[in-house]
Design a protein that fits this description.
By secondary structure, the chain is of the alpha/beta class. The chain has helices at about 35-50, 130-145, 145-165, 180-215, 230-240, 240-250, 270, 275-295, 315-320, 335-340, and strands at about 1-10, 15-20, 25-30, 65-75, 80-90, 95, 100, 115, 220-225, 260-265, 265-270, 300-305, 330-335, 350. The structure holds adenosine-5'-triphosphate and magnesium ion. InterPro entries: DNA-binding_RecF, DNA-binding_RecF_CS, P-loop_NTPase, RecF/RecN/SMC_N, RecF_2.
Length: about 350
């Protein structure tokens, strides 16, 4: 799939923007704080409904304005799609696909797939487990509607269970109701775990050859997600930790506490790896992500590279840019040296200056 056109109105530092992108490699270059990442962010919102930066929807509205519009035109297997996002100051956002408003934001998932790569992603191995859960959740939500359904229900019930654990102190009679929540939590939680396990299995089928190429065959990488628990097993674990949960007034087991670990053969990269090894593992993971998305959607996602090239040495830059064949890519950078030195083919260059 490719983006054909992007329009912005009162979005961050853009009053208006009308951008016709090339179907291959596009560069957005300019000094710091000119609006490069803002463009990638707007595209990302059209895919996931949320900013990659986190934060509140209204933060993207241009200072002094009441609302912002993003409009994106996509060509997917020769079919045209238009996604309109209307972000409002004090109301929830409106989303329309080909002019037809959708009721739930999750209906947008899967229409338009992007892979976003920023310098923070290079720290995914050394950061805390929540970053790795966020990675897997964002990916699966784009690819699997049932995952979204199970995860949303799981999180809803988890919140209710945690609220109950807090209320128990004042109303101990409520303890009997805990079992109802545990049954539900086990039902949705085991589905979340099952789908995460399948996803990690797919990563492992793809990541090692990519990684070996980047490291000149020196290292084998394995991603571990040591969870294989069915509904009954998760329910039993919840029952077993009830006393602890009551004491800490929160739920201590379940997929909301999951983590992924990365190993070079027997070595845990997060604990023992050098910074370079951790970043290389992160790059391999990102490259594997592109391949997985391709294989699941039977199409190419759009790749957004925010300032990552300057963070990589030239061998890794080459690996990354060479893997982009046939994938529409939008790259932000402050200079063009890397492209000139490596003689990479660029199809369109945009200079970004003060929101123009
Ligand atoms: P860098 O190279 O430093 O990453 P960039 O070109 O990617 O820079 P952006 O992150 O796109 O820069 O931000 C550009 C500008 O947008 C910043 O100067 C910021 O102050 C401005 N900005 C952010 N939010 C808003 C907003 N809601 N309204 C107006 N301007 C905003
Ligand atoms: Mg930026």
């Amino acid at each position: 799939m490719v983006i054909e056109k992007l329009n912005l109105c009162n979005y961050r530092n853009y009053e208006t923007l009308d951008l016709n992108v090339d179907s291959k490699t596009n560069i957005l270059y300019g000094d710091n704080a000119q609006g490069k990442t803002n463009i990638l962010e707007a595209i990302y919102i059209c895919s996931t409904t949320k900013s990659h930066r986190g934060g509140k929807d209204k933060e993207v509205i241009k200072f002094g304005c009441d609302d912002a519009h993003i409009k994106i035109y996509i060509n997917k297997k020769n079919k045209e799609y238009r996604i309109d996002i209307h972000l409002k100051k004090n109301k929830s956002k409106g989303i329309a696909i080909n002019g037809i408003p959708i009721k739930k934001a999750s209906e947008l998932f899967g229409i338009f797939n992007v892979v976003f790569f920023s310098p923070e992603d290079l720290n995914i191995i050394k950061n805390g487990p929540s970053e790795r859960r966020r990675f897997i959740d964002l990916e699966l939500c784009q690819l699997d509607k049932l995952y979204v359904y199970n995860l949303l229900n799981y999180n809803k019930i988890l919140n209710q269970r945690n609220k109950l654990l807090k209320d128990l102190y004042f109303k101990p009679d409520l303890e009997e109701t805990l079992d109802v929540w545990d049954l539900q939590l086990a039902k949705y939680g085991s589905e979340v775990i099952k789908r995460r396990s399948e996803f990690v299995k797919k990563i492992n089928e793809i990541i090692n050859p990519i990684h070996k190429k980047i490291t000149d065959n020196k290292e084998n990488i394995i991603v571990k997600y040591d969870k294989n628990c069915d509904e009954l097993e998760l329910y039993n674990q919840l029952v077993l930790t009830r006393e602890k949960d009551k004491k800490y007034k929160t739920t201590n087991v379940g997929p909301h506490r999951d983590d992924l670990s990365f190993y070079y053969d027997d070595m845990n990269v997060r604990i023992y790896g050098s910074q370079g090894q951790q970043r290389t593992a992160a790059l391999s993971l990102k490259l594997a992500e592109i391949e997985i998305v391709k294989s699941i959607i039977h199409d190419t996602p759009v790749l957004l590279l925010d300032d990552v090239l300057s963070e990589l040495d030239s061998k890794r830059q080459n690996e990354l840019l060479n893997s982009l064949e046939n994938v529409q890519t939008i790259i932000t950078c402050t200079g063009l040296d890397e492209f000139i030195e490596n003689r990479f083919k660029i199809n369109k260059i945009f200079k970004v200056k003060e929101g123009k």
